[in-house]
Amino acid sequence: NYRQYLEASTNGQINLELYTSHALHQSHEEREHTEKPMKLQNQQGGRIFLQDIKKPDHDDRENGLNARECALCLERSVDQSLLELSTLATEKNDPYLCHFTETQYLNEQVEAIKELGNHIIALCKLWAPGSGQAEYRFDKHTLGHGEN
């Protein structure tokens, strides 16, 4: 019988990943992040409870810097949730869930936070209020559409 507190925490992580996929428009990657804990939940005999995915409470369309700052905030929320899930699994002596969060998520999450942070730092160095040229060139370079 899958422990109820682990089931609830895993469901929380699943729903946060679904929200993040909507908010960050990275649905393919975030969908994979959602499917893995769903599979785990099923393997452990737990039930999956999905919540409504709410529209983000911020508008990240103002500019690329603002969008990346919002994305960084969301990624940090996901990281904190993963750390809490891992801690709970450790406290409740669930080595399978500990291993799962550590090998499937935490390192990747740290890398995503680091990458977004580096993008924000670079944009801040280039930023000129009212000018989209630096942002355009930065996006073109970081999104892999730069000129060769």
Compute the separation of the termini in Å.
57 Å
**What kind of sheet is the major sheet?**
none
Coarse morphology: elongated
Approximately how much beta-strand content do the residues carry?
Answer: under 5%
Task: Note the total helix count.
Answer: 5
Helix content: over 70%
Number of strands: 0
Describe this structure in words.
With 148 residues, the protein is mainly alpha-helical. The chain has one domain (4-142): Up-down Bundle (Ferritin), CATH 1.20.1260. It contains five helices and no strands. The protein has helices spanning 4-24, 27-43, 64-91, 95-126, 133-142. Helix 1 (4-24) packs antiparallel against helix 2, helix 1 packs antiparallel against helix 3 and helix 4 packs antiparallel against helix 5 (133-142). The termini are far apart. The mean pLDDT is 78.
